[in-house]
Amino acid sequence: MPELPEVETTVRGLAAVLQDVRLTSVITRRADLRRAFPVDLGQRMTGARIVTLSRRAKYGLLGTDRGDSMIFHLGMSGRWRIDPEEIGTHDHLVIETDSGQVLSLFDPRRFGSVDLVETALLANFPSFAAMGPEPLGDDFTPAYLRERLKGRASPIKAMLLDQRIVAGLGNIYVCEALNMARISPLRAAGQIGPAKLKPLVAAIKSVLIDAIAAGGSTLRDYARPDGQLGYFAKQWRVYAREGEPCPCGGTVQRTVQSGRSTFWCSACQK
Ligand SMILES: [Zn+2]
User: Fold this and answer.
1) CATH number of residue 65's parent domain
2) Is residue 41 domain-shared with residue 123, that is, in the same domain?
3) Is 90 annotated as a binding residue?
């Protein structure tokens, strides 16, 4: 599943092709992904120039000179293909540019989504309205996290996966960051003191920056937008490594929390 670093990598790849480029054709090849495509997507995007490309949590945003923003989510298996050799049954949205390039949104499982909103009203988009700060943003600080976790008895892992507290963090990066910061995923969030929150925030930023630098991690069929395959899961510290050694010399264990696997090490994570 594409996580925040993959979406960031995708947006950067798309920017190389779409920045300041006019779209000459925008065609949906079926009515829906996870939900319906906007019925006026083709009408509003055809002829528009892309002036901004950005990311919010796991959403990519393409802003046009007409004041619209197309918001995409890659779901479980979505990716953009640039100049694909052929358009197949899983290419659900096809865009042509005045620079002669073709882009397709390829999504075999169709858990992705495409929405179109006025850029001025982006903050009201339902998925963004209650969302917490970006983990790589200046607003995500130890002081902010301390305030949000105060009095919370839920495990820290669950709190970090809560999009209202911090936006866009997924299971892999939460497991990795908690290991790096030496915090047990089972700890009650409100009981973690400032001395631990500082390295935790630093670890979250660090694991994301490293993954973006590596071009995004790959799980199964994720590919960079230019169609280049070959990024395979990097060597995680603990994720998916049950029974293998932790960097501290202890052994990685797996615990199920809220129905999802947590990989961690009880020797160094307290
Ligand atoms: Zn350890």
Assistant:
1) 3.20.190.10
2) yes
3) yes
Considering only CA atoms, which of 112, 106, 116 is closest in space to residue 62? 116
Q: Ligand 1 centroid to 103 CA: how many Å?
A: 44
Specify whether 9 is located in the same domain as 123. yes
pLDDT classification of 53: cutoffs 50, 70, 90: very high
Is the Cβ–Cβ distance between 12 and 41 less than 8 Å? Answer: no
Q: What is the pLDDT of residues 88-127, one digit of tens each?
A: 999 999 999 999 999 999 999 999 999 999 999 999 999 9
Q: Of 204, 157, 184, 201, which is closest to residue 5 (Cα–Cα)?
A: 204
Domain that holds residue 251: 142-264
Catalytic residue among 55, 56, 58, 237: 58
Cα 18 to Cα 5, 95, 100, 224: the distances in Å are: 19, 10, 11, 15
Does the residue 269 lie in any domain? Answer: no
Give the strands of the sheet with 91-97, arranged side by side. 23-28, 91-97, 102-106, 79-82
What Rg, from alpha-carbon coordinates, does the chain have?
20
The residue type of 125 is F
- The verdict on whether 260 is a catalytic residue reads yes
Domain holding 212: CATH number? Answer: 1.10.8.50
Q: For the residues of 176-232, what is the DSSP string, one character each?
A: HHHHHTT--TTSBGGG--HHHHHHHHHHHHHHHHHHHHTT----TT---TT------
The helix/strand/coil state of 173 is: helix
Full-model pTM: 0.91
Whether 194 sits among the annotated catalytic residues: the reply is no
pLDDT, one tens digit per residue, over 116-167 is 999 999 999 999 999 999 999 999 999 999 999 999 999 999 999 999 999 9
| 120 contacts 63 by C-beta, under 8 angstroms | no
155 catalytic? Reply is: no
184/49 Cα distance (integer angstroms): 48
